Amino acid sequence: MDTAQEKTVKNFWIGTIKPAFLSAIPGSDIPATLDIQAGGIDGYGGPGILCIYSGIVDTNDRVFIAYALAHETGHCAVPTICKAIGIPAPQTVNQTDFRKHEVLADLTGMWVLFQCCPGLYSQVISHRNTIAMTLGAADFQHPSGQKRMQIIDDLDKQLRPNGLKRIFTKRKSSHSYMVGMLESILNGQVDLN
Ligand SMILES: [Zn+2]
User: Fold this and answer.
1) Distance (Å, rounded) from C-alpha 139 to C-alpha 57?
2) How far is the CA of 70 from the centre of ligand 1 (A)?
C-alpha cells in the first residue's frame, strides 16, 4: 500500500514529469508507472524501467523530489538522447562509465525541466546547494552531490542567457548548448571525480 506521500509523488510523476519527458524527448522509453520501493536516497532507471526508493519521498522536500524524479526518469531517456546525437551510450563496465551515466541522467532531467517545467527548473537551480548536501559524498557510481550540481550549474549558465520565457523561440540555440554539454561528457572531456 502506498502512503499518502507516495501517492502524491506518483501523481506528480505521472501528471508532470512523464508528459514532460515524452514532449521534450519523443521516443524515450518511459514506463507506464513509477515504482517506489523501500530504501534510502536512491533509485534506478533505464529504458522501460523506473524505481525510486522511499528515502527520496521521505525527504518531504518537493524541490528535491522533483529533481530526483527528473534524474531517475533521465536514465530512461539517456539511450534515446545519445542515439539522437550519434554517440553510443556508455557501457557500464567501469567507474567512469557509471559516472557518465549519472551526469547524463542529471543533464537530461534538467533539460526536460528547462523546456517543459520552467518553474520547477528554476527552483532546482536555486536549491542546488541544498540538493548537493542531500546527495552527499561520491560513491563508486555517483560523483559527489557538489560535483553533480556544479555540472548542472555549467549547463544553466549556458541555457539561462536565452531566458526562460523565450525558450520556445530560442529553442534551437538552447538545444545546441545541451548537445555540446552531452558530447563533452560522453567524450570524457569533463572530470567526473
Ligand atoms: Zn542515477
Assistant:
1) 21
2) 10
Rounded to whole angstroms, how far apart are CA atoms 163 and 174? 10
Distance spanning both ends of the chain, measured CA to CA: 39
| Cα 169 to ligand 1 centroid, rounded to whole Å | 31
Position 102 confidence tier, pLDDT thresholds 50, 70, 90: very high
105 CA → ligand 1 middle, Å: 6
Q: Could you tell me where the DSSP H helices lie in 90-169?
A: 95-116, 118-126, 128-135, 145-159
Question: Distance between CA atoms of 8 and 25, rounded to whole angstroms?
Answer: 24
Residues 6+ apart with CB under 8 A from 179: 85
Half-sphere exposure of 11 (CA within 13 A, CB side): 8
Which residues line ion ligand 1, judged by CB < 5 Å?
102, 105
Using one digit for the tens of pLDDT, what is the confidence trace for 14-42? Answer: 999 999 999 999 999 999 999 999 999 99
Q: In this structure, what DSSP letter does residue 88 have?
A: P
SS3 51: strand
